[in-house]
Specification:
Radius of gyration: 73 Å
Shape: elongated
Strand order of the largest sheet: 2-1-5-4-3
Strand content: 15-25%
Largest sheet: 5 strands, antiparallel
Number of helices: 23
Distance between the termini: 133 Å
């Protein structure tokens, strides 16, 4: 509330402020004048003291020691008057000599000589060498004349030859010159200071005006704040009164609540500063007993809870926040009380925990109920765990939001129950097969509408993507909140469903197979009969069911089916029999019979199953096959004998041909050398043709003999150290004329290679065969490259050509005797088909391998790998063990 007298105060405030400013300036000016006057006075007095000190210095040599020992009289007095008379000028009105004990020994005023008017202690500072001055009146210590204001100065006197002062010299100076000097100094300063203060005062008016306005504004604010403060104080007084009243009501309320409130110390857990009266009703202890008995809290705390409660309180106090815990207290009468302790840590203004406030709520009944509920829940969980299915409670919504789901769901679909509860990770709807979800929703909707239980089969998809068949049985219920929920159970039908499918598959197989599948009871009576049995035995199902097994047995084997059944009963294992059975039309058939025991779920034998297959045609076929096998064996023996005779014939013919061919070659050489006379060119040409064909025929005979040796296992090698590079070079040079004749480039490349153990002639034959083949099957302009190198402990030979190539389907026959490719035959390329067979035999006789890589029209590469061994190692191998 604003003060209505605030406006009239403003002029008085300005006047007061101006007066205060003038007074302050006046006081400042007076202070300055006093300071200047004091300084001028001190300076004038210092001049008096200096004058006395100078006079003492001049007069001391003229004084006698007796002048300072006793009052001066007589002639000495007159002498001293004459001595000091010149000093009585410049304002000096009196001179005294003092003895150290305070006696005047001389004075220009003789009436003072001999007086003892001062204490010796007054001269101690002077005798020590420090002059002293004072303002007084001339006759304060006696004397004659006008009692004027003077400045007296005391200085020490040191007579000639004396180290210390012998007395004191005092001058009395008239103070008026000093005042005149001070006035002369102060007056101009006063005038200048007055003018300066007037100017300063005049310059303050604009500032005073602004300050006054600011002060007026601030004064108004202060008045407003004062009003607000007064109002706040009034409100606070009312609040304090209300707080006291509320505290009284709160305390009354707290002490009527069904709980115990307390205040305890932070640094002494368990020691309470206050506890409400309800403690007596809870534990049987009065509040006074609780507060006065040390450690009563820890004494009544249940022993099993002490360590835990200490830890929880320590951690709660350290955190500085609120915390809650539950524990047991033992009442005075010995019964146990469960309490819930709600604690709030209280901090001071600096945030330091100072005390704990809390309340104890008796939860014994609730805890007992919880324990009982826990036991019931454990029994329920045990019951649910033993149910071979998933127990659930869910909301009736699109997600089937689960409130509870038993652990068996994880065994069913691989996800834990927590994933589905409240749709925490996934919805239950997400694992239902999409095709079955609408059907399930419709069935549940109908069951809820009709207030009936429901049963439905559908499919769920587990976390691996596998499908499980389940049956769900459930019913809508109302929960504690009145919401409609579904309670039910889900059972896995997958195994049963698969078993049914297997049974159906088996039934389909049984019905579709051509074999007769029959089951009988322990008495041998037929209980099942499939379509295959109708086809095999000719009896229909109606005709066979209930009949004994003997209806299918020939008269001479009527007891055999029952004998087989008894054997099965004793051994209880699958049995196989080959026997004869009779059809409905009386025809006898061969059957292959398999008997298996049939058991129930407990493993007890309840019958047998039989699978009978008509083997009549198979038996006939086996007999025919045996006959044909015997005929083939006889033909094979004949062929082998013919092959042996052929080999012997070839070897014999080859051997018999070699001798005349050798003779022919010899005579040809004689004729060509002119031993039988000169030859015409035409004769020489004809003999050259004969010679070439004789060479070819001799080579063919050699090849035939070589293969005969191989077939007979009698190939012998002349083992020695062989330089493959040199052998290859000789063969290349041998084949070069033919290559140049066809316009084919023939090259050789050899690398560093150790000598190998082998038959030099046979290896040369190997090179000749491969090089001649390459040249033979390469068209003009092509090339044949021979490479010899060492690789991983083996000697490697490669013969590569750019010829016509070999089709892949013919390559497997390439090393067979007398084999020639289709292109070689079509293009009439000469050859016997023995070269590669001989080459392979030579390679394998040396323990090596030969492979071919070729493509049609892309050339051919033969690659031979021979082990690098010492000649002695191969020479010691038996010749008849060479593998070909």
């Amino acid at each position: 509330m604003l003060n209505p007298t605030a406006s009239p105060r403003a002029p008085r405030l300005v006047l007061r402020f101006a007066l205060y400013s003038a007074l302050a300036l006046l006081l400042a000016g007076v202070g300055i004048l006093l300071f200047v006057r004091h300084e001028a006075q001190v300076r004038a007095e210092d001049e008096v003291t200096n004058r006395v000190s100078q006079a003492a210095a001049v007069l001391a040599p003229k004084l006698q020691p007796s002048d300072l020992k006793a009052p001066v009289t007589g002639s000495r007095l007159a002498a001293l008057d004459a001595l000091f008379k010149p000093e009585l000028t410049g304002g000096v009105v009196r001179v005294k000599l003092w003895r150290p004990d305070g006696t005047v020994t001389y004075s220009t005023d003789h009436s003072l000589i001999g007086r003892h008017v001062a204490d010796a202690s007054d001269f101690t500072p002077v005798l020590a060498g420090r002059p002293v001055r004072e303002i007084a009146h001339l006759n304060d210590e006696g004397g004659t004349g006008k009692n004027i204001k003077i400045v007296s100065a005391y200085v020490p006197l040191k007579l000639r030859g004396q180290a210390e002062a012998n007395g004191v010299l005092e001058f009395y100076n008239d103070y008026r010159p000093v005042e005149e000097q001070v006035a002369a100094t102060v007056k101009p300063v006063s005038v200048a200071l007055g003018l300066a203060l007037l100017l300063l005062y005049a310059s303050l008016f604009p500032i005073l005006n602004q300050v006054t306005k600011a002060l007026e504004h601030r004064n108004r604010r202060l008045e407003q704040q004062a009003d607000e403060l007064e109002r706040t104080l009034n409100e606070r007084r009312q609040a304090v009164a209300s707080l006291r009243d509320a505290e009284t009501r709160y305390r009354a309320l707290v002490e009527q609540l069904p709980l115990v409130t307390y205040v305890s110390s932070i640094d002494k857990p368990g020691f309470s500063a206050y506890v409400s009266p309800q403690i007596e009703g809870m534990l049987g202890y009065t509040p006074d007993e609780w507060l006065e008995t040390p450690n009563l809290f820890w004494r009544v705390l249940h022993p099993d809870d002490i360590d835990r409660v200490r830890t929880e309180h320590r951690q709660g106090y350290e955190s500085g926040g609120s915390f809650a815990t539950q524990y047991r207290l033992v009442a005075r009468d010995g019964h146990t009380v469960w309490v819930e302790d709600q604690v709030q840590v209280v901090h001071d203004a600096e945030g330091v925990p100072v005390q704990a406030q809390g309340f104890l709520l008796d939860i014994t009944h609730r805890k007992t109920a919880e324990l009982a509920l826990g036991e019931n829940e454990e029994r329920f969980r045990t019951l649910v765990a033993n149910v071979p299915g998933v127990i659930f409670r869910c909301a009736i919504d699109s997600n089937w939001t689960m409130e509870y789901l038993s652990e068996e769901i994880q065994e069913l679909v691989g996800y834990p129950p927590s994933d589905f509860v409240e749709n925490n990770v996934r919805t239950f709807a997400s694992i239902i097969h999409p095709e079955d979800a609408p059907v399930l929703a419709k069935e549940v909707e109908d069951a809820v509408a009709e207030s009936r239980p429901y049963t439905i089969e559908y499919r769920v998809i587990d976390r691996r993507g596998d499908i499980h068949y389940v049956v769900e049985r459930g019913q809508a219920i109302l929960d504690a909140d009145g919401d409609r929920m579904l309670d039910g159970a889900i059972f896995d039908l997958t195994a049963r469903r698969l078993a049914e499918e297997e049974r159906m598959k088996l039934a389909a197989i049984v019905e579709s197979t051509d074999d007769a599948i029959i089951s009988v009871d322990l008495n041998g009576n037929i209980v099942s009969w499939n379509v295959g049995a109708e086809q095999v035995f000719g009896f229909s199902t109606e005709e066979a069911i209930g009949q004994p097994l003997s209806i299918m047995a020939p008269p001479d084997r009527a007891d055999e089916p029952f004998t087989f059944l008894e054997e099965l009963k004793s051994v209880k294992t699958v049995a196989h029999h080959e026997t004869v059975r009779r059809r409905k039309d009386g025809a006898l058939i061969d059957v292959s019979l398999t008997l298996s025991p049939l058991t129930d779920a407990a493993g007890n034998l309840i019958g047998a199953s039989a699978i009978a297959r008509d083997t009549t045609e198979r038996k006939q076929a086996e007999l025919e096959r045996e006959r044909l096998v015997h005929e083939l064996e006889a033909q094979n023996e004949s062929l082998l004998e013919l092959d042996r005779l052929k080999d012997e014939f070839v070897a014999l013919v080859s051997h018999e041909l070699r001798t005349p061919l050798t003779s022919i070659r010899g005579y040809l050489e004689l004729l060509l050398e002119g031993e039988a006379g000169d030859l015409t060119d035409e004769q020489r040409h004809f003999l050259g043709v004969v010679e070439r064909n004789a060479h070819r025929l001799l080579a063919l005979v050699g090849d035939l003999l070589f293969l005969a040796q191989v077939e007979a296992g009698k190939l012998s090698l002349d083992i020695g150290a062989v330089d493959l590079g040199a052998v290859a070079a000789e063969s290349v040079e041998t084949g070069r004329p033919l290559a140049e004749e066809k316009g084919i480039t023939l090259t050789l490349a050899t690398g560093p290679l150790a000598l190998i153990a082998g038959d030099r002639a046979r290896i040369a034959q190997l090179f000749d065969n491969l090089i001649s083949n390459g040249v033979k099957f390469t068209p003009p302009g092509g090339r044949v490259d021979v490479r010899v190198k060492s690789q991983r402990g083996n000697a490697v030979i490669e013969v590569r050509d750019t010829g016509m190539g070999i089709p892949s389907e013919e390559q497997e026959h390439l090393f067979e005797r007398f084999f020639r490719t289709a292109q070689a035959t079509e293009q009439a390329i000469p050859g016997t088909g023995l070269g590669l067979a001989i080459s392979k035999a030579i390679v394998e006789a040396h323990g090596g391998q030969i492979v071919v890589a070729s493509g049609e029209s892309s050339g051919t590469t033969f690659r031979i790998s021979l082990p690098i061994r010492q000649a002695q190692a191969i020479a010691e191998e038996p010749v008849d063990e060479v593998a070909l």
